[in-house]
Amino acid sequence: MAASYKPRKGDKSGAASDSPSQSTLIRRWGIRAVLLALIVGLYQWANTINDRFYILTPAELNETVQHSLKLAADLNTDPKTNASLIISTLVNQLADRHPEMSWATDIGNKRDWVFNNAGGAMGSMYILHASITEYVIIFGSAVGTEGHSGRHTADDYFHILTGQQSAYEAGDLTREIYNPGDVHHMKRGVVKQYAAAPETWALEYARGWIPLMLPFGFADTFFSTLDLITLYHTVRVTGKEMIKNLLIGKI
Ligand SMILES: *[C@@H]1O[C@H](CO)[C@@H](O)[C@H](O)[C@H]1NC(C)=O
Ligand SMILES: *[C@@H]1O[C@H](CO)[C@@H](O)[C@H](O)[C@H]1NC(C)=O
């Protein structure tokens, strides 16, 4: 419809017509490049300041775990209650040592335990502490599991309490083995395939910008399990802990 064709402003015939639209294009992409650089810069800057919000240290957590394992082993008589004794001893110690952060300690409350499907692995977890920059959970599986570790944006420390975890990186032909008392440190950016034997339970500690890690944790819900009830409870307990911590000034 030639009649409805309106030339754009500055749209003349010939080679000269290209230059204004080209410069518009260059400006548009220039703005996008600057925005992208700003976002990358902001993210990198955010990663240099988050350590001022951390309260826990891997060394102290390891020490608390070792102490609880020993205490539980001394008290223990029955293998059937072993894991629950170790976990409750540990949880009480953490809450005693760090009253300045909020802890959920009611591990007998089944309503606050949730399944977690991520990277093809399935386990269940109890959130002991969740704030914007740190989380501490009990994670494991009574039947065992295997899957992709996820490519984390933060350092992740797995303190094995019972059972056994094994893992390897692509290119390795043998596995790393982690037994009770061992710490499996998943460094930022590293990916592994991991497996957990039946009745493996671990204290997992992660630090970094926690909200940025949640998409991996939820991906399997949207693309595999469609278990929205579990998603609801996960968001409920995570949100509750984060808000409780914000209210007492723990970022
Ligand atoms: C944890 O503590 C134990 C006992 O003190 C020590 O042998 C081990 O090397 C520590 N592990 C890490 C990863 O720091
Ligand atoms: C209890 O758990 C610890 C750590 O996983 C293990 O070393 C110990 O053998 C267990 N004890 C019993 C009685 O199952």
Automatic annotation (TrEMBL):
The main place the protein resides is: endoplasmic reticulum
Catalytic class of the enzyme: isomerase
What are the entry keywords?
Endoplasmic reticulum, Isomerase, Membrane, Transmembrane, Transmembrane helix
Q: Which InterPro entries match?
A: ERG2_sigma1_rcpt-like
Molecular function in Gene Ontology: isomerase activity
What span is annotated as the signal peptide, if there is one?
A: none
Protein name as annotated: C-8 sterol isomerase
Kindly list the organism's lineage.
Answer: Eukaryota, Fungi, Dikarya, Basidiomycota, Agaricomycotina
